[in-house]
């Protein structure tokens, strides 16, 4: 019997050709319920009023600092326009949160279990990773009605190694459909290389090039059932639209880079004091 997560030759061929592959039933119902219940608990315990990101004084610096610090802690990011002029949420925090990141895979045992599982290691071995580390993770909510658009991008822009090694793993915790904001991708776009880099310096973070324009007819929707995992090449161009439905679209996503013979770019936004532990070394 094939090991769970290990890609077949046909699956590898599809991935290499298209830049993505959807693996159905990657997570069990119990695993999905465990992650969603754990996130519900984390949100219940979180006091948003204590976070510097919501301060009106020196807002840009505080926002950048909060973002940078999330590289080594669990941080909470809200939807645009979630707050009124006085800094109060317009609706309950459970319906205002955009994502939680960026080290759930390290700091929380529930999310660590799934992201560091044997089936994930088997998948990465299929992709020839020698000493992979999870460099970031996010729980994304895509709230009903207000879940915002994510513009076309490539993951290598944000998580750059030399040579480039980023792979995205995106796990649907709820059904992802066109109406509630599923992922869309341009098949084969990973073959054209990286188009721009997201760079951090003393002034903050910014792209080194403007975004190219894309023809929407080139994108295909990646509708998935809860429990399905999509594997995304780091150069694949992908996006998602606003959630126009009355149902959320929860997902857990994490990104992996290799550390075997690879250099983490000094201009990446993630700058860690404690380096992540490899999932395995081969």
Which H/E pattern describes the elements?
HEHHEEHHHEEEEEEEEEEEE
CATH homologous superfamily assignment: q2cbj1_9rhob like domain
| Annotated CATH topology | Jelly Rolls
Helix percent band: 10-25%
For the largest sheet, list the strands in their spatial order. Answer: 1-12-7-14-4-3-2
**How many discrete structural domains?**
1
* Strand-pairing-aware structural class: alpha+beta
| DSSP strand tally | 15
Note poorly predicted spans: 52-59
**What is the multimeric organization of the chains shown?**
single chain
CATH architecture label name:
Sandwich
CATH class: Mainly Beta
What's the main sheet like?
Answer: 7 strands, antiparallel
- Summed up, the helix count is 6
Head-to-tail CA distance between termini: 23 Å
Write down the Rg.
18 Å
**Overall 3D shape:** globular
**Averaged pLDDT:** 92
Give the structure's gist in a few sentences.
With 282 residues, this protein is an alpha+beta fold.
List keywords for this structure.
Jelly Rolls; 15 strands; single chain; 282 residues; alpha+beta; globular
Q: How is this fold's topology laid out?
A:
Elements: H1 9-18, E1 20-23, H2 29-45, H3 59-69, E2 75-78, E3 97-102, H4 104-107, H5 109-115, H6 118-126, E4 132-140, E5 150-153, E6 161-162, E7 167-172, E8 183-185, E9 198-201, E10 204-207, E11 220-222, E12 229-233, E13 238-240, E14 251-258, E15 263-264
Antiparallel strand pairs: 1-12, 2-3, 3-4, 4-14, 5-13, 6-15, 7-12, 7-14, 8-11, 8-13, 9-10
């Amino acid at each position: 019997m094939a090991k769970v997560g290990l890609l077949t030759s046909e699956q590898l061929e599809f991935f290499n050709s298209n830049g993505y592959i959807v693996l159905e039933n990657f997570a069990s119902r119990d695993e999905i319920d465990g992650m969603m219940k754990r996130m519900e608990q984390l949100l219940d315990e979180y006091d948003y009023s204590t976070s510097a990101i919501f301060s009106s004084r020196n807002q840009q610096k505080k926002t950048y600092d909060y973002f940078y610090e999330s590289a080594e802690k669990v941080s909470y990011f809200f939807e645009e326009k979630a707050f009124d002029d006085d800094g109060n949420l317009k609706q309950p925090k459970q319906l205002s949160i955009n994502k939680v990141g960026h080290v759930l895979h390290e700091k929380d045992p529930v999310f660590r279990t799934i992201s560091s599982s044997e089936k994930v290691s088997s998948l990465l071995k299929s992709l020839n990773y020698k000493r992979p580390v999870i460099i970031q993770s996010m729980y994304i909510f895509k709230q009903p009605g207000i879940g915002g658009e994510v513009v076309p991008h490539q993951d290598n822009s944000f998580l750059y190694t030399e040579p480039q090694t980023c792979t995205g793993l995106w796990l649907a915790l709820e059904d992802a459909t066109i109406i509630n904001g599923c992922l869309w991708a341009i098949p084969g776009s990973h073959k054209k290389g990286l188009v721009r880099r997201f760079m951090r310096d003393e002034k903050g973070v910014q792209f080194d090039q403007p975004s190219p324009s894309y023809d929407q007819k080139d994108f295909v929707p990646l509708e998935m059932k809860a429990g399905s995992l999509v594997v995304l090449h780091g150069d694949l161009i992908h996006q998602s639209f606003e959630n126009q439905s009355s149902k959320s679209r929860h997902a857990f996503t994490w990104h992996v880079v290799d550390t075997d013979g690879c250099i983490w770019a000094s201009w990446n936004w993630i700058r860690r004091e404690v380096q992540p532990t490899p999932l395995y070394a081969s």
